[in-house]
Amino acid sequence: MFERFTKDARVVVKGAVEHCARTGARTVEAEHLLLALLDREASRGAFALASLGLTERRESVTGALAEARRRAGLSQADTDALAGLGIDVPAIVSRVEEAHGVGAMSGDRGTGPAEGKGWWGGHRPFSRGAKKVLENSLRMALAHSDRHIGDEHLLLALTTLPGVASEVLADHGVTHASVTRVLYGGGEAKAG
Q1: For residues 35 and 76, what is the distance between their CA atoms, to the nearest angstrom?
Q2: Residue 191 falls inside a structural domain
Q3: What is the reported pTM?
Q4: Residues 6+ apart with CB under 8 A from 44
Q5: Which ranges carry the Clp R domain (predicted)?
Q6: Which domain holds residue 89?
Q7: pLDDT tens across 134-158, in order?
Q8: Three-state DSSP class for residue 23
Q9: What residues contact residue 28 under an 8 Å CB cut-off, 6+ apart?
């Protein structure tokens, strides 16, 4: 499948691996793909994000992603659902962090560069969610009759899958419909 990725899409995938390594995470997550997309300039995905005002709110996006990481990767929807069952996620996070330090539930501790490469020899595998984004990016390209998978297809895939990345995007006004409108028409400027 990677032979169908454009240079921009490959840069995003590599950037996601770098974000993963920088944070010390054990696996590359969909959130790392989103952060790598935010790093891009002069690509179709970057055009869509800029058109929708997300690049100016990068700090808000990274803050929301960091907060979700503190909740062990639970989206706000997951947190709300658990609250409906009487489980107070913020209280649990607070108690765990009191005992083990801030970020203890993120799964990132003890895997950073200072701690060594870990049992996997430095290779960070893609999580099930990140793999699903990559798979769905192919579907997005095919749905729009595009021959290659670009970073815009990665962005579209991120908006369609449930989880933290799509929730954060939606909270910032970036939805599948809005990205599609910017990229493929419907009254907005098209990315070229």
Answers
A1: 19
A2: no
A3: 0.80
A4: 8, 150, 151, 152, 183, 191
A5: 2-192
A6: 2-184
A7: 999 999 999 999 999 999 999 999 9
A8: helix
A9: 16, 17, 20, 124, 125, 126, 127, 130
Q: What distances in angstroms separate CA 53 from CA 47, 89, 150, 168, 175, one per listed residue?
A: 10, 31, 20, 14, 12
Instruction: Please indicate, yes or no, if residue 190 is contained in any of the structural domains.
Output: no
Size (the chain), residues: 192
> Is 152 exposed, middle or buried (CB count within 10 Å of its CB: 0-12, 13-18, 19+)?
buried
Determine the Cα–Cα distance for residues 58 and 144; give it in Å rounded to an integer: 28
Q: Residue 46 maps to which CATH number?
A: 1.10.1780.10
Find out whether 161 and 27 touch, Cβ atoms under 8 Å.
no
Task: Quote the mean pLDDT of the chain.
Answer: 84
Q: Which two tokens stand for residue 47?
A: 């055009």
